Amino acid sequence: CIYTKFLCITSLHFEFHLSLILFDLFGEIHCNFFCTRSVYSDYYPGLKSYSNKNMSVSTAIKAVDKYVGFHNEKHKRGIIIEPSITFYGGEPFLKFEIIKSVVNYCKSKNFKAKIYATTNGTIINDEIIDFIIENEIHVMFSLDGYKENHDRNRVFANNIPTFELILENIKKIQKKKKKAGKRTIVNV
What are the phi and psi torsion angles at 19 (to 5°)? Predict the structure, then answer.
């Protein structure tokens, strides 16, 4: 299995850091942008590409189970590390149902992993924000510097700029986070 090979490689080469990266790991790259500099774009032929593959919830859960096994093995050997699961690749929140399923599965199994997500921030809505805050997910928003620079490189497929929308969504999540009294980490 791909996830087994990836986790074995990770386990052997990064002795003190073990993290599960979903979506990019399985070659499932869905995005609502057409970034000229993206490693998934035609600008970098042969490196990576967008995909129409669809990961199932069961595949994601199998990856989490395998990761938990590797984490527990390390723990038995005295390596105490905080587990983490990262949703990365394209726009992960296009697969929000899988993210919810994985986070809820971890909670149901009492597996306390830090959850990270890297997002372009354009499809963030109230439901997603509430879930992020409730589960204290660490969110990284992709912005390419100042407005003009960002909008030159990071646009929707129809060439519409995205900076202002992302900025509004960052403000929205920060406001809701503060109101809820949570410490969800937001990076830009």
Answer: -140, 145
Q: Find out whether 132 and 180 touch, Cβ atoms under 8 Å.
A: no
d(CA 136, CA 184): 5
Please, which pLDDT band fits residue 11 given cuts at 50, 70 and 90?
very low
Query: Is residue 5 classed exposed, middle or buried when 0-12, 13-18 and 19+ CB atoms within 10 A define those classes?
Result: exposed
Quick one: what percent of the chain has pLDDT higher than 90?
Answer: 29
Per residue in 85-104, pLDDT (tens digit) is: 888 877 889 889 989 999 99
Phi, psi torsion values for 158, nearest 5 degrees = -90, 15
With 0-12 CB in 10 A as exposed, 13-18 as middle and 19+ as buried, what is 164?
A: exposed
**Largest Cα span, the chain:** 52
- With cut-offs at 50, 70 and 90, classify the pLDDT of residue 133: very high
Rounded distance between C-alpha atoms, residue 148 and residue 65, angstroms: 43
Q: Is 84 left (phi over 0), alpha (psi -120 to 50) or beta?
A: beta
Higher pLDDT, 106 or 15: 106
- For the entire predicted model, the pTM comes to 0.77
DSSP 84: E
Q: Which residues pair with 87 in a beta bridge?
A: 22, 117
3 state SS of 25: coil
Q: Which residue has the tokens 């590390």?
A: 81
